[in-house]
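Help wanted!
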Amino acid sequence: MLSIKNLQARIEEKEILKGINLEIKAGEVHAIMGPNGSGKSTLASVLAGRSDYEVTGGTVEFQGKDLLELAPEDRAREGVFLAFQYPIEIPGVSTTNFIKTAVNEVRKYRGEEPMDAVAFLKKMKEKMKLVEIDQSLLSRSLNEGFSGGEKKRNEIFQMAMLEPKFAILDETDSGLDIDALRIVAEGVNKLKSKDNATLVITHYQRLLEYIVPDYVHVLYKGRIVKSGGKELALELEEKGYDFIKEELGEEVEA
Amino acid sequence: MSEMLTTLEQTALSEYKYGWVTNIEADEAPPGLSEDIVRFISAKKNEPEWMLDWRLKAYRHWLKMSEPEWANVKYPKVDYNAIKYYSAPKQKKTLNSLDEVDPELRATFEKLGISLDEQKRLSNVAVDAVIDSVSIATTFKKQLAELGIIFCSMSEAIQEHPELIKKWLGSVVPMTDNYFSALNSAVFSDGSFCYIPKGVKSPMELSTYFRINAENTGQFERTLIVAEEGSYVSYLEGCTAPMRDENQLHAAVVEIVALDNAEVKYSTVQNWYPGDKDGKGGIYNFVTKRGICAGVNSKISWTQVETGSAVTWKYPSVILKGDNSQGEFYSVAVTNNHQQADTGTKMMHIGKNTRSRIVSKGISAGFSQNSYRGLVQVGKNAINARNFSQCDSLLLGDKCGAHTFPYIEVKNSTAQVEHEATTSKIGEDQIFYCNQRGLDTETAVALIINGFAKEVMNQLPMEFAVEAQKLLAISLEGSVG
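Answered by r_m:
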């Protein structure tokens, strides 16, 4: 589904991604872990097409298309979804209206008719249960005055509504208490199918207790330095990121 | 980011879609202004002596006045002798029914989405269509007349209802009020008159659609709305003009009178030609709009969506004279390219327990300048007067300007006056978030803008709201930074 080869990117003059290689197939859940500043969020942003970052080398193929050639909105319409680490607020635009616009833009791209109000509402009701989100929240302006947990839940709700092929969860666990974390993770699990894939970006192993990955990759200084099964996450949790540094022969600070 | 800006700026050059000209023969006055021209206009309209005298008095006063310069706008001086003050589409004879309207003119309004055909109209809007200097047709007159509502052109009202015109014309905006109101009083050619009798709630929206067509012509319309005791009316005003390289002057006067327990809601979607992307051409929109809540418990509400005109100078105001009366001003002003707008309101609290609310949303893009100027005045007898003002500005790009000039004068210690102001920019974060959900940048901007302006848009009657939302999007297509 997604094939990243030797991806390099920088922001202004600073090299952040220094050659990422990653293959993700349909039905798989991959986790990317790594210490702060290793390039995790940059990878998410580059895949989604944020223009602050300049891709300096490498290729990304998504379902046979050159992803890097596509505008951010076309990537979204092709089925790439990013659950933001810091979802933004849009005053005066109700969450429902926003999602409806998004759903219909995606449908338009696929040559489908806009969804009528009844069908949309039905779908919304169904997905609301999935992420245990309240109707009152959806009538409010998008993310305005939402708590951290509400914002993250809203991201997963949008994901449920848009039904992406490939979803990236960028530190979705940050700022969540244990209950919110469980709800968000369960939502993601319910959306999992053999036709879609998920990339979970996280600093902590905690989220991976709920969203069990098929593969875990450790990102360090802009490169994937270690890959393994879900047990790698536990190993990292136990030993800390220092053990990666040791393996790489770097000096570990006391 | 920088790359994004340039592509966005390129798409900012949206086209004005009402810029065409209708080929109709016109009956015109030669350019220039003199007592003879004032007499010419009055004679063309077959006016009674008292009306001519009123006009001449206004003209003589205007000669002694000078053009105001305090507004935060810059434009080349208007040459008042180069303007034609009267232009009327030539019609063969007086019309007996709407069916007799010149097909060419009818087509003009059809093209604007205004059908003069009553059968095809939305059943709850009556329209008075004004082209250049004269009113072409008024729909639903008969149905309204059955309720005692008078809705007709100002010319007709002068002929048919002189007692009402004599009583109320100039009662809210005296001819000597300001430079442009004096000019308008001298040369106004038409406009709408609307009279709602005691206890009548108008069952439909009344609407006037103004169109400037002729070249080098000023449009000076005059609108007067009188709401008798316990009556209600919602009034809509729309306007467009062809694209011309020359600046054209539009100096209207609107007066509203609300007597005891009466309510008037006045909504405007102003879409005069704004000039091209380099600031060439466009309408000078110098308008005086004022209402008086003359009676107790009366209410006047102004809602405006201002997207057009090269230069706008406009402050729809309310004199809160009756005890417990209420004034409202809801405004969205959009400026793009080289447009300049200096707009706001005046709320003058005179009666006891009077309340006013001001919500102003300014959106600036391109190289435009957008100013809010508002006065809240509380007189010494206005016990318990309340005002709440909110002025929000949204900037798109870094070459435009937003300014807020609030003036507050309070002479009664029981008054409560609140003012809130914010300025924000559409961020690339917001755009990217929308992009990531499948919205292209134009759709994203339209969504964000409409969200910003929502509180005002909600005040518009349904028929107008959808149109106004689209208009906001078109006026700003992609102009984000």
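OP: Thanks! One thing I noticed: Chain A touches chain B through 31 residues (CB under 8 Å).
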